[in-house]
Design brief:
The structure holds two protein chains of two kinds. Chain A is mostly helical. Chain A contains ten helices and four strands. Chain B is 20% helix and 19% strand. The chains are: A mainly alpha, B alpha+beta.
């Protein structure tokens, strides 16, 4: 009986030591070879977190993978240049040199992996499409805040996150929507109102477009001049 | 006061008219030549005997009562209009509508409302209604505008037009404008000269509409879509300003 207790205690103890040594090893983070341990947290222009640990210790990159060619090794220096934008990354600069969808996930995907507050990324101004017909209105905020959609509900499967991309496509038509493409992915009559109903919810027409772009002021002025002439 | 009421009025004659009134009336008669000599305002109504093809209670066309050999008309499926204004562009190009202020043959009207804080918009295409009893035709002193006896289209004879603009004032739909280039009144004529004469079956605006909001056709022909639409049971059909008694040939529906 006593032997039995001894063996149990021995097993438990060995297990404890095994776990303890393991966890001690995991916590051993060498700042000299892995970079600063605390994640870098930017506030401007948007809230972004960057973890050295994920890229070095976890992914096996060495310092010279990024320093100093892509990023100078001085806190806040790259950001101060104002050149580190999503557009620059799409061109393969900064994070984009690896985050190209090949070496690592593309910079136009998985927003929330780096951006800690994705809501601040949602464009305030509406999108106004003028092709193939003038004009169609889309509010990001209505879809993210009012309907609670995440970025990846539409990006990048349904819509590429690039200005004017949908308009350039030949099939950005109502017919495509009825086939479940673009807006029709949700606007099918069950998830959201069907694409062939409530036309003027999105279609604002030439008049709505002119009002948004301020073109109708010129028309109004012209009208008043003509009236005065009578 | 609509035409029917006017027609029922008794001619009061001029014997008991005060001098001042007589003078005013004579002046008007001179301005609109012929009205006074005709003895009755309505005697110049070139289409006064045109019968209604519309059920006056329901505004629905009554089969077998279309008074023209070809009866061209248009249906507006109003809820389909998205104000892309391709119709306006096509019309301008086809019919050489000048790029001047106020010059138009067709237009889109817009109504903005707010419902629970959400902006709502409605678009309505408008053009000449090619009325069966057109007030513009009635007032024209030179018969420059008339109902085409073949098609029922209200057309213009630009050579006869003296530019008095009385028809502009008379039109309940504001469908006429003064064309500086022609120096005559111009208006929609369902592309009678620019497209129908070439054998095309549709007006430029209807052909250009990407949503099928404008359906043009011959009501006499039972195979046309316009016939089908206007004779679909339980379809709510309406016309603009039915109270004028002009019996318009442009019908509206949400379908």
């Amino acid at each position: 009986m006593q032997n039995r207790i001894k063996t149990i205690v021995a097993i438990l103890l060995s297990g404890f030591f095994f776990l303890a040594t393991n966890s001690i090893a995991a916590e051993a983070y060498d700042e000299d070879s892995y970079g600063p341990e605390a994640p870098i947290a930017w506030d401007k222009p948007t809230k972004v977190n960057f973890s050295h640990k994920v890229h070095t210790m976890d992914s096996g990159l060495t310092c010279d993978a990024c320093h100093d060619e892509l990023f100078t090794m001085e806190a806040g220096a790259v950001l101060a240049t104002g050149k580190m934008t999503m557009a620059a990354m799409a061109e393969g600069k900064f994070c984009g040199s690896c985050h190209d969808g090949n070496t690592a996930f593309a910079s136009s995907t998985q927003c929330a992996s780096c951006h800690t507050d994705v809501n601040e990324l949602v464009p305030e101004d509406p999108i106004v499409w003028t092709k193939p017909v003038k004009a169609v209105l889309f509010y990001h905020k209505a879809h993210t805040e009012d309907f609670g959609l995440e970025c990846d509900a539409c990006h990048n499967d349904t819509f590429v996150m690039q200005k004017g991309a949908a308009e350039k496509a030949d099939n950005f038509t109502m017919q495509a929507l009825y086939e479940g493409k673009y807006c029709g992915k949700c606007h099918d009559g069950s998830t959201a109102f069907a694409s062939d109903t409530r036309c003027n919810t999105c279609h604002i027409g030439v008049k709505g477009y002119n009002r948004m772009t301020g073109n109708d002021d010129a028309h109004e002025k012209n009208h008043k001049d003509t009236q005065a002439g009578h | 006061m609509n035409i029917e009421d006017l027609e029922n009025e008794k001619n009061e004659g001029i014997e008991n008219m005060p001098l001042q009134e007589r003078r005013k009336f004579l002046q008007m008669g001179l301005a609109v030549t012929g009205v006074f000599l005709g003895g009755s305002v309505l005697s110049l109504t070139s289409a006064s005997h045109a019968s209604s093809q519309i059920n006056p209670d329901l505004d629905i066309p009554v089969e077998g009562q279309y008074p023209y050999p070809k009866h061209y008309s248009m249906v507006m499926r109003q809820n389909r209009c998205i104000d892309c204004e391709r119709c306006i562009e096509a019309c301008k190009q086809t019919n050489h509508v000048p790029d001047a202020h106020g010059a138009y043959r067709t237009a889109i009207q817009e109504r903005l409302t707010t419902e629970n804080g959400v902006e709502k918009r409605e678009f309505r295409p408008v053009l000449c209604n090619h009325c069966n009893r057109p007030p513009c035709v009635r007032v024209c002193p030179t018969k420059a505008t008339y109902k085409d006896p073949e098609t029922g289209i209200v057309v213009m004879d630009y050579k006869k037009c003296i530019g008095c603009k009385t028809c502009m004032a008379a039109c309940p739909y504001n469908a006429r404008y003064f064309n500086e280039e022609k120096y005559a009144i111009d208006k929609c004529n369902f592309c009678i000269d620019t497209r129908l004469a070439e054998g095309k079956k549709e007006t430029a605006c209807a052909a250009a509409c990407p949503t099928g909001a404008r359906i043009f056709g011959d009501l006499k022909d039972k195979s046309t879509e316009i016939y089908r639409l206007l004779h679909t049971p339980d379809t709510k059909i309406w016309v603009l300003r039915p109270d004028t008694g002009a019996l318009p040939n442009v019908f509206y529906m949400n379908a």
